[in-house]
Amino acid sequence: MASTRSVVDYIIGQLGPEASARAMFGEYGVYLRGTLIALVCDDRLFLKPTDAVAEICGTYERASPYPGAKPAIVVPEDDWADGALMRRLAAANAAALAKAKPAPTKSAKRSVTKSAKRPKPR
Predict the structure, then answer these.
(1) 95: number of CA atoms within 13 Å, CB side?
(2) Which of 85, 84, 97, 87 is nearest to 34 (CA)?
(3) What confidence tens digit (pLDDT) does each residue in 40-85 have?
(4) Which domains does the chain have, with CATH numbers?
(5) pTM, entire model
(6) Sheet containing 62-63: order of strands
């Protein structure tokens, strides 16, 4: 069962003006300031697991958003109405994930491209 856009819109509204969602394979990716922080699958909110979020919601269920996926933190639907909590979870996750993977620089991209091009043997 795919997620409904109205559920996604409600969640995004609770996360604040810097939040957005993109459709992904019938479900949705949730972004905060361009960082993927969560998935909405089957109308359930799955936060990417980070230590920062685990500290805030240590007793929340962990489950896979889809078969074969790593377990994520499931935010209960009852907690979606608490806008302050939702914004706190989103901000903590975005900060933790932004630190985890720095974006590659343009020079790093160029060096990979240049090294991949090799002269043809004669």
Answers:
(1) 9
(2) 97
(3) 999 999 999 888 888 888 789 999 998 998 999 999 999 999 999 9
(4) 5-116 (3.30.1460.30)
(5) 0.77
(6) 19-24, 27-32, 35-41, 44-47, 72-75, 62-63
